[in-house]
Amino acid sequence: MAHTVRARINLRRGAVTDAEADARIAHALAAEHQWSELLPFTSSHLANALLEADAVEEAGRVLEVPDRAAAMSVADYVESLGLLHLAQASPAVALEHFLTCSRILAARGGVDAPGVMPWRSRAAAALVAMGDRSRAATFAREELALAEASGVAGSVTVARTALGVAVGGPEGLRLLGGAVTDAQASPRVLVRIQALTELGSLVRRSGQPRAARPHLAHALDLARRQGATRLGDRARAELLAAGGRPRREALTGTEALTASERRIAELAADGLTNQQIAAQLYVSTRTVATHLTHIYQKLRIGGREDVGGAMGRQNLRPL
What we know:
The protein has helices spanning about 1-10, 15-30, 40-50, 55-60, 70, 75-85, 90-105, 120-130, 135-150, 155-165, 170-185, 190-205, 210-225, 230-240, 260-270, 275-280, 285-300, 305-310. The protein is an all-alpha fold. α3 (about 40-50) packs parallel to α6 (about 75-85), α12 runs antiparallel to α13 and α16 crosses α17 (about 285-300).
């Protein structure tokens, strides 16, 4: 439960690699102990992190839970299915899942608040992909009103971004500019990246490619630092379309580490042995050894004794 909650918090604050690492542990534990009531939640959190990392196929496999019928009564799980179908370019199916989320929340007396589940902005994204911008704007306006009433800055930014994308034109530019300004005060980095990317995209399409580049370059830089590959790929494509020249992605250093590699590197830097790391992460010692080999290569270090320095921390216990 602790790993599940921490995965959710990490994803909210934009730490995609950390969210994926926690979600993997939570999902493995729930599966190992056959905790069927928790599996829809752990699969949802892991799938959401994987989707942000652009691992769409793996996210689909994770959402193949044993008791699908029971899972379909869990709003978090259904929302993840919607996000999966949106990533798979099936917006009509995604829309139905997001609308199902609203029905589940209503039937169970759940709180219909954007800060809990922004199903309206999700539905708006699906409708934009379907070409129905008018209906998308209606959903986004409803969510913006709820978000502003709640006073939660991150939720306001999400709704304002969704509405800006839906309406486009001068009003869209105004809304997206406001979303970017709002996002500066929010700890939700993914929300900031999304707002910057959508603003840059609309500015570019309005005939101002030079003005679009700073927004898109900033979005790309943030995405790479957070491990948000999905958003990073979108920002990079828009930056190229705007005539920008994004720097090459890191092939070495800490930015090149996957979520699993980062987690193992951190534990190794804390002084844990391979056996202790394997026990904590519920993997084999052989898997740990393989990951460490890749870690040494990416960090360009000679061995375990150098991991702490490369990760910018001191070993807490003797190796």
